[in-house]
């Protein structure tokens, strides 16, 4: 970064209404959610209102950013700020997932053995459950949720792994296209990525249906069900978000918003997509396979 | 290792180093030894168990170290505050941080602190092992401690006795209010006792300072501690983990007695238990009045903490039973909730009571206050409902 | 709405936007900083009001004013409001004001997001307050009687207000994470040319580390409370042994956040001290590099010692030994910081204006609280201290001096810069002395209560604990009232007073003092060169 480019023309946006709209929309959505899960009827209406406002906000905010970007407000330094910001945001997401992986690890390696009579709290099994033996997958000494079958790794999950991995390849291919100003390659790569992402989500939904209908594996199936659905569920949610972001990028690519040197938005989304990919690998290994 | 008990009224300024340090330390009370401080309620009470003594010593050690360090810090700061002032014309030494000391203090200080740290950790580590590892002895006495909202249940697993321990209202306990219970936890001296802690609902924690070992009671898990009482006496403690509304009303009172008295006490308790079981298992049909008087007593000890003596509860936390749809509706529903409780609420299953007791409580609830169903629920009905 | 056709040179040099838009839509770090500070002040008073109610109830044995559930609801609320509403936003306010001015940047790196991080806070506060008041409405369910740690299974029993609290925590998390991203990016990307990381002012360093910590631990708390939400409403069994879960898992998740959190509260104040003490000792900070190193060490070790809050839950001997030793070792870097402060005062030419008075009292009293922390860290002894009033005494000794007094020192130190007026030194000194003395009267006796066997979070206690509680409550009333003086001083300074020079303190060093007092709406639009 050269000295000249510094601060002097660092872009500082004018006062903006979006943050406050963001606040109102989040507040409305969450109040609605809190009411809805407690069975208060208007809750759902409130959630919808909040979400609509939220989408309006996203739309408006990003429109402003895009406009500013197109009118060349952002210099190199601003671009760096955006990049760093995105990376640290992803870092925080990593830790969000780590809390769930941590929970899985703790339950499998510490809590369940105790319940099954091993280790420091081994007396538990003897005094409270006489004879419960822990083995993963488990729905606990009281067998919550009834008999179930676990989800095996080598069916849909393995296919999904392939799908996500190849989608990682397709975004990269699109990126190459962008770097050599080949718009066709960019657009095609993005479309392929989005298609793969959607395919992934659909297969995942199908798999959930299968688990509920045939394996009797539900959210209520003890800790196995809890960890399985929470981890895969939050991941699926992130894939969906990523796909929506990719669609926005696709739209912008078709309008030729990006150039070989100025495409932070594209890269941000691509990073996000890779992050979602990596999380899936963790899931595949620790949730399905081991 | 058990140290001889110190006399609580030991005169100040005992010659040995540890005590004179303790004395010097406590800035607020410069001349008192640890033991004397206990007298004034400024320190832990005198330990009454082997491990408790070791814990007490560790506490005194770290407190001593902390106080000495504090005095050192205070001394340097106050010296500096006094001498290195602008108003005294002291010129700031702009190169202090570049002296050899300035260059090496980042090594010197951590090494010194590390030394102190290791002293503390080393001492603690030795004690820790004996606190943590429950002796693996065949004849260790097992007491299962179950926390309930808001009372304690003590099962003497080797004697087949169960004690339910509840706080006593102020009228009955006077100055010991919140430190006195109806049935105490009676334990023998000179016997290794293993406590198995668990809970029926939420977290609680068993804490009697004289025994020193505090342990959480976790629903669905069993945690262990142990103690060997070294003297007779009555030791009082309280539940130490927030457990809801009446967390303040879960005292624990340990009555430490000689093994002989303990044996006599267990004999008595077993006899009472046999009599109660015999009463409950007769096929007798009970009259309304018999059930009502039994039921009233049981209700007031077991249920009134939440539903209140007048049956009005404390809404919204605890529903009123007076005029409630359940206590005036079908008997089956009423029995169901009492036997099985309601998950994720403070209403726990009461199925461990015997048929007669449940019958009495339910009959009472259906025929008191404004509830006038006239139903008489017999023990057989409870048996069927289980 | 944003105009996007502006020309870059002059557009942002124009004067401050006027009226309500200036505050609601702000993208200016100084205005946002002011908003943060104002918000924190309001929250301090709210949290303080609940503390006063707590102390009034504990004034005498017996249940006088408030019923047990309300008591615990107040305790929960007090802690959350003070920590998330008071201390953290106040520290963020200082960061917003000072970081750009200290590193020669025109503003924060992401000004619009900066405003979002602030405005999420009032939303979170609304949810928090709702969670407190909802039970008073018909059909509102039971009160939150769990304490701020919201351990299950007790938190599974609470009514819908717990869900409001959970969502409030999510919002607080969003706000902190966004603010932290902004601060990190600003510090890494916006420094004036020539200002290497090792020339960066200490306050910036402390915030850099704090922001890292926030990004790493807040999401884990969010994950934890999300599991709680699912256990409450959707039938999962993360924290239910019957289904193979473990209530203690929540404690691990909570404290994985909770322990680093205490350093998040502490570090910005350490940053303030690193400016205040050298200024009034008129010599440079002793051991700048070791300070930075110590801070990094605190953050690193602080991440891996969380379970010292759970010694009594039944961990294995190996686990408790590890957590004990790790925790005790934190005294090394913190000790080094304390040492550096003392060495900065040593052979200085000290004067004692209000910020310096606070700074000195912090060095003394925080050390006291830290040392009682080391006592707590010793497992066998903590079997006694845990969940007693001794712990309450420990953490108020570190939280008030360590965090809150540090912020007070910062406010007095920079107030002339912000407002252009000197505060009333005499009132400042009166505030300091009443504050510090009554603080000690309030919390010192609580050590004895804990040792004598009084558990924390109890609404009613045995007569044997009366004396010290009376002393503590009287101290607390004086302590509480003394804050009204703070309010008065601040308002008075904003409204007028002796004109402050650009460098009101003789010994002050740093870029922020080269700006006029008060600084222009936009500063450092051309970056200063650092040699
Ligand atoms: C700003 C906040 C803050 C800070 C800085 C600290 C700092 C420390 N804390 Fe504290 N703590 C809390 C806030 C804080 N704490 C809170 C809020 C709780 C309760 C939460 C709840 O349950 O609700 C708590 C609880 C708590 C516990 C759990 C107690 C229990 O529940 O049983 C423990 C146990 O280890 C502990 C230890 C420590 C230690 C070792 C430090 C160390 O960092 C201290 C280091 C400092 C020094 C040691 C002093 C200076 C050093 C020297 C002068 C050098 C020489 C020193 C030696 C050789 C020892 N703290
Ligand atoms: C940064 C954090 C912070 C701060 C600043 C404080 C500040 C104070 N705290 Fe708090 N406290 C906690 C964090 C904090 N606390 C935490 C984490 C807990 C544990 C909660 C739990 O167990 O879950 C706790 C618990 C706690 C308890 C224990 C409750 C219990 O376990 O039963 C007590 C009791 O004395 C207490 C007292 C006080 C007092 C008197 C102040 C005072 O310093 C407050 C002074 C400030 C004011 C008073 C505000 C300004 C002035 C006014 C509002 C004017 C009006 C004044 C009057 C009417 C007199 N706190
Ligand atoms: Cu039981 Cu607190
Ligand atoms: Cu901690």
Key phrases:
heterotrimer; A: 290 residues; mainly alpha; Helix Hairpins; Four Helix Bundle (Hemerythrin (Met), subunit A); 2 domains; 73% helix; globular; disordered N terminus; B: 386 residues; alpha+beta; Immunoglobulin-like; Cytochrome Bc1 Complex, Chain D, domain 2; 3 domains; 5-stranded mixed sheet; 3-stranded mixed sheet; 11 helices; 15% strand; binds heme-A; binds dinuclear copper ion; binds copper (II) ion
Number of strands of chain B: 10
User: Roughly how much helix do the residues of chain B carry, as a percent range?
Assistant: 40-55%
Mean pLDDT of chain A: 89
Bound molecules: heme-A, dinuclear copper ion, copper (II) ion
Question: What is the end-to-end distance of chain A?
Answer: 47 Å
CATH fold call of the largest domain in chain A: Four Helix Bundle (Hemerythrin (Met), subunit A)
Shape annotation of chain B: elongated
Instruction: Calculate the terminal CA-CA distance of chain B, rounded to whole Å.
Output: 51 Å
Oligomer: heterotrimer
**Which range best describes the helical content of chain A: under 10%, 10-25%, 25-40%, 40-55%, 55-70% or over 70%?**
over 70%
Gross CATH architecture of the largest domain in chain A: Up-down Bundle
Number of helices of chain A: 8
Question: Any chance you could write out the topology, listing elements then pairs?
Answer:
The complex is a heterotrimer of chains A (290), B (386) and C (531).
Chain A: H1 18-36, H2 42-70, H3 76-115, H4 123-129, H5 156-179, H6 183-215, H7 222-254, H8 264-289
Chain B: H1 17-25, H2 34-39, H3 50-83, H4 100-132, E1 141-148, E2 151-156, E3 161-165, H5 170-173, E4 185-188, E5 192-199, E6 204-206, E7 215-217, E8 223-228, E9 233-238, E10 251-257, H6 259-281, H7 288-307, H8 325-328, H9 331-340, H10 355-366, H11 379-385
Parallel strand pairs in B: 1-5, 4-10
Antiparallel strand pairs in B: 1-2, 2-3, 5-8, 6-7, 9-10
Helix pairs in contact in B: 1-3, 3-4, 7-10, 10-11
Chain C: H1 8-11, H2 19-24, H3 29-58, H4 68-103, H5 111-133, H6 154-157, H7 161-189, H8 202-233, H9 247-281, H10 288-303, H11 317-329, H12 331-345, H13 354-377, H14 379-385, H15 389-419, H16 425-452, H17 466-495
Helix pairs in contact in C: 3-4, 3-5, 3-17, 4-5, 4-7, 4-9, 4-15, 5-7, 7-8, 8-9, 8-10, 9-10, 9-12, 9-13, 9-15, 10-12, 12-13, 13-15, 13-16, 15-16, 16-17
Dinuclear copper ion is lined by residues 147, 150, 204, 239, 241-243, 247, 250 of chain B.
């Amino acid at each position: 970064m050269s000295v000249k480019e510094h601060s002097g023309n660092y872009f500082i946006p004018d006062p903006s209404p979006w943050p406050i709209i963001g606040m109102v929309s989040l507040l409305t959505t969450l109040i609605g959610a809190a009411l809805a899960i407690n069975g208060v009827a208007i809750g759902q209406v409130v959630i919808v209102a909040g979400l609509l406002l939220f989408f309006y906000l996203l739309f408006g905010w990003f429109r402003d950013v895009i406009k500013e970007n197109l009118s060349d407000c952002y210099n190199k330094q601003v671009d760096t700020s955006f990049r760093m910001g995105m990376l640290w945001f992803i870092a925080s997401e990593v830790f969000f997932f780590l809390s769930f992986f941590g929970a899985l690890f703790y339950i499998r390696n510490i809590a369940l053995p105790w319940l099954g009579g091993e280790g420091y709290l081994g007396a538990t099994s003897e005094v409270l459950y006489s004879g419960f033996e822990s083995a993963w997958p488990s729905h606990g000494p009281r067998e919550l949720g009834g008999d179930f079958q676990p989800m095996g790794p080598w069916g849909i999950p393995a296919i999904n792994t392939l799908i996500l991995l190849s989608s990682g390849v397709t975004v990269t291919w699109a990126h190459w296209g962008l770097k050599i100003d080949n718009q066709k390659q960019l657009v095609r790569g993005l479309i392929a990525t989005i298609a793969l992402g959607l395919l992934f989500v659909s297969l995942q939904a199908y798999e959930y249906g299968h688990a509920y209908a045939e394996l009797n594996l539900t959210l209520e199936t003890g800790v196995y069900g809890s960890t399985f659905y929470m981890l895969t569920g939050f991941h699926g949610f992130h894939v969906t978000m990523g796909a929506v972001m990719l669609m926005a990028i696709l739209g912008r690519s078709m309008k030729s918003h990006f150039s070989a040197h100025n495409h932070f938005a594209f890269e941000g989304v691509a990073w996000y997509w890779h992050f979602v990919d990596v999380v899936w690998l963790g899931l595949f290994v620790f949730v399905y396979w081991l | 290792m058990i140290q001889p008990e110190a006399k609580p009224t030991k005169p100040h300024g005992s010659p040995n180093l540890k005590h004179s340090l303790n004395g010097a330390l406590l800035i607020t009370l410069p001349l008192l030894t640890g033991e004397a401080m206990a007298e004034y309620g400024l320190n832990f009470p005198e330990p009454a168990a082997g491990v408790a003594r070791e814990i007490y010593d560790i506490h005194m050690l770290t407190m001593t170290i902390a106080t000495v360090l504090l005095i050192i810090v205070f001394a340097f700061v106050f010296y500096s505050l006094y001498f290195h002032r602008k108003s005294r014309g002291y010129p700031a030494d702009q190169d202090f941080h570049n002296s050899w000391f300035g260059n090496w203090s980042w090594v010197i200080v951590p090494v010194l602190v590390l030394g102190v740290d290791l002293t503390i950790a080393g001492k603690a580590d030795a004690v820790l092992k004996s606190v943590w590892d429950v002796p693996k002895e065949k004849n260790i006495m097992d007491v299962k401690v179950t926390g309930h909202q808001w009372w304690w249940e003590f099962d003497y697993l080797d004697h087949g006795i169960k004690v339910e321990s509840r706080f006593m209202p102020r009228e009955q306990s006077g100055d010991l209010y919140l430190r006195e219970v109806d049935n105490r936890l009676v334990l023998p001296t000179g016997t290794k006792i293993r406590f198995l802690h668990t809970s029926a609902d939420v977290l609680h924690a068993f804490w009697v300072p004289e025994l020193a070992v505090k342990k959480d009671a976790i629903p669905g898990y069993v945690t262990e501690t142990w103690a060997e009482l070294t003297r007779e006496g009555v030791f009082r403690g309280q539940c130490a983990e927030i457990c809801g509304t009446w967390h303040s009303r879960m005292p624990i009172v340990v009555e430490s007695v000689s093994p002989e008295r303990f044996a006599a006490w267990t004999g008595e308790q077993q006899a009472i238990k046999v009599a109660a079981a015999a009463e409950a298992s007769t096929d007798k049909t009970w009259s309304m009045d018999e059930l009502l008087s039994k039921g009233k007593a049981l209700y007031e000890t077991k249920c009134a903490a939440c539903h209140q003596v007048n049956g009005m509860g404390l809404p919204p936390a605890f529903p009123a039973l007076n005029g409630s749809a359940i206590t005036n509706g079908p008997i089956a529903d009423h029995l169901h909730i009492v036997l099985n409780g309601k998950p994720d609420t403070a209403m726990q299953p009461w199925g461990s009571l015997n048929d007669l007791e449940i019958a009495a409580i339910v009959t009472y609830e259906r025929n008191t206050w404004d509830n006038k169903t006239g139903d008489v629920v017999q023990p057989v009905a409870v048996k069927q409902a289980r | 709405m944003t105009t996007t056709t502006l020309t870059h040179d002059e557009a942002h040099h124009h004067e401050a936007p006027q009226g309500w838009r200036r505050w609601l839509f702000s993208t200016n770090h100084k205005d946002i900083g002011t908003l943060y500070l104002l918000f924190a002040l309001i929250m301090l008073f709210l949290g303080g009001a609940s503390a006063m109610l707590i102390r009034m109830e504990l004034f005498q044995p017996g249940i006088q004013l408030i019923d047990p559930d309300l008591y615990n609801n107040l305790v929960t609320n007090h802690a959350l409001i003070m920590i998330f509403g008071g201390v953290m936003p106040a520290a963020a306010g200082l960061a917003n004001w000072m970081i750009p001015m200290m590193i020669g940047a025109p503003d924060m790196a992401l000004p619009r997001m900066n405003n979002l991080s602030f405005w999420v806070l009032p939303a979170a506060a609304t949810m928090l307050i709702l969670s407190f008041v909802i039970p008073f409405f018909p059909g509102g369910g039971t009160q939150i009687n769990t304490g701020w740690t919201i351990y299950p299974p007790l938190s599974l029993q609470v009514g819908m207000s717990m869900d409001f609290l959970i969502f409030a925590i999510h919002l607080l998390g969003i706000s902190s994470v966004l603010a932290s991203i902004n601060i990190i990016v600003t510090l890494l990307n916006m420094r004036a040319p020539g200002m290497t990381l090792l020339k960066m002012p200490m306050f910036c360093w402390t915030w850099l580390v704090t922001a890292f910590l926030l990004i790493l631990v807040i999401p884990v708390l969010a994950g934890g409370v999300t599991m709680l939400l699912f256990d409450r409403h959707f039938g999962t069994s993360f924290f239910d042994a019957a289904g193979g879960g473990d209530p203690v898992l929540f404690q691990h998740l909570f404290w994985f956040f909770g322990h680093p959190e205490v350093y998040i509260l502490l570090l910005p104040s350490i940053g303030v001290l690193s400016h205040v003490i050298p200024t009034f000792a008129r010599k440079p900070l002793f051991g700048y590099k070791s300070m930075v190193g110590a801070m990094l060490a605190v953050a690193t070790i602080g991440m891996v010692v969380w379970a010292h809050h759970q010694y009594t839950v039944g961990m294995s001997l190996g686990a408790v030994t590890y957590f004990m030793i790790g925790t005790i070792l934190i005294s090394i870097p913190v000790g080094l910081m304390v040492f550096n402060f003392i060495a900065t005062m040593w052979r200085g030419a000290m004067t004692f204006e209000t910020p310096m008075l606070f700074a000195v009292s912090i060095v003394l009293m925080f050390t006291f609280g830290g040392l009682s922390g080391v006592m707590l860290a010793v497992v066998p002894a903590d079997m006694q201290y845990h969940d007693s009033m001794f712990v309450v005494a420990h953490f108020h000794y570190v939280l008030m001096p360590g965090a809150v007094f540090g912020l007070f020192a910062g406010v007095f130190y920079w107030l002339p810069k912000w407002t252009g007026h000197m505060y009333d030194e005499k009132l400042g000194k009166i505030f300091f002395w009443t504050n510090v003395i009554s603080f000690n009267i309030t919390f010192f006796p609580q050590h004895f209560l804990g040792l004598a066997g009084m558990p924390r979070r109890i609404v009613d206690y045995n007569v044997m604990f009366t004396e010290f509680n009376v002393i503590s409550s009287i101290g607390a009333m004086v302590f509480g009232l003394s804050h009204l003086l703070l309010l008065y001083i601040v308002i008075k300074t904003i409204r007028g007073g002796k004109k402050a020079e650009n460098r009101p303190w003789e010994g002050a060093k740093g870029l922020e003092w080269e700006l006029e007092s008060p600084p222009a709406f936009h500063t450092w639009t051309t970056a200063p060169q650092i040699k």
